[in-house]
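Subject: for your reference before the review

Hello V.,

The reviewers asked for a structural picture of the protein, and I figured it would be easier to keep everything in one thread rather than splitting it across files. Below is the amino acid sequence we used in the manuscript, unchanged from the supplementary table.
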Amino acid sequence: MKKPGQAVAHALDGPGPAAPAPPPPGIDQPLLRHLFHYWSGKKAGRRLPLRQDIDPVEIGPKVLPHLMLTDVLEDGRLRYRLAGTAVEAVTCQSLSGHYLDELLRPPYRDYVLTLYAEVIKKRCALYTESLYPRSRSQPERLTKRLMLPLVSEHDDVVVVLSGQIFKTITDLSYSPPLSPIPSVCQERLRLVL
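And here is what came back from the structure prediction:
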């Protein structure tokens, strides 16, 4: 029963907000699937969500440690605005406020910059799985990353929202075989969404 002052929805009122797209096949990590669903639900009929529509706290406490917000600056450089604790634990450094091109070393830096360039230029979501360069103190890892563009009111990509999961791997669990050179990036999967 309708309460005073309460609106009644009718089929003729038109569709409500667009339902978020289901996570595409190929993304097997529940946290990244959740992030894709959240991002998709924030589009509000647009091709890409606005930066101000995203609230990291809304995304949920399980995803936050794996989250990154990267600012796309006017000069084309990329600066980490926010990096979750799980990401910083693997990188062994604080990323927030630092430029990506100053923190990462080649050839991994060049690979990651290429991923960002693709997301920004094509204005698309991108999911990749690749080898993460190991350090002397850490084992080799596979990283699964979902990169999601956010736009300004002028429809320019101004931030990339990313989720990144790291999994320790063994020679038997990774295909193609691991490179004997730990700094070489090996991509296992790339999905343009």
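For the response letter, the relevant points are probably these. The first helix runs from residue 30 to 41. The first strand starts at residue 67 and ends at 72.

Happy to draft the paragraph if you're swamped.

O.
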